[in-house]
Specification:
single chain; about 170 residues; alpha+beta; 3-stranded antiparallel β-sheet
Length: about 170
Amino acid sequence: STVLTSDDIVLDEERQCVLVFVNFSKTNQFSRRHYCIPIPRNEDPALDLYRYVELLFSRVKAHEDSPAMSFSAKGFITHRTFTVKLKSWLSKAGLDPALFSGHSFRRGGASYLYSIGGSTLMVQVMGDWRSQVFTRYLYLTMEDRQSAQALIKSAINDTVGNTVLPQGVLP
């Protein structure tokens, strides 16, 4: 199925995490791979997905093959509903909604994980990328770029040492 269903989301009480099983995605259009995203509990109740999924499943009695984000036996949040709501919230926050889409979370998540020290391998695996194309999403701040240049400078200085330039190269 191309829709994430209630059956694809599992509350793992032992590990205290939400397991999201994604069997279809942009990078897995023929469901040849099974991909699991473990999302740990969060100490902040407002950010605790485990808590919200637990509440959703206890309050909404939807069939296991119903869309995962069902809010009643027949009602669920569609991609369109999500993106319309997202753009409304962005506008209320004073941001230009035209600059964002649902896909912004993919790019933002990749950049955020990388910016907090996640390796490129972590970013690739968590984003389910099969190629290196994800590196186009990684954003380096000016501080990151300066750090990169400082690394290069340091390595060159360590390698070359005190090099004397030939006469007439620089004034």
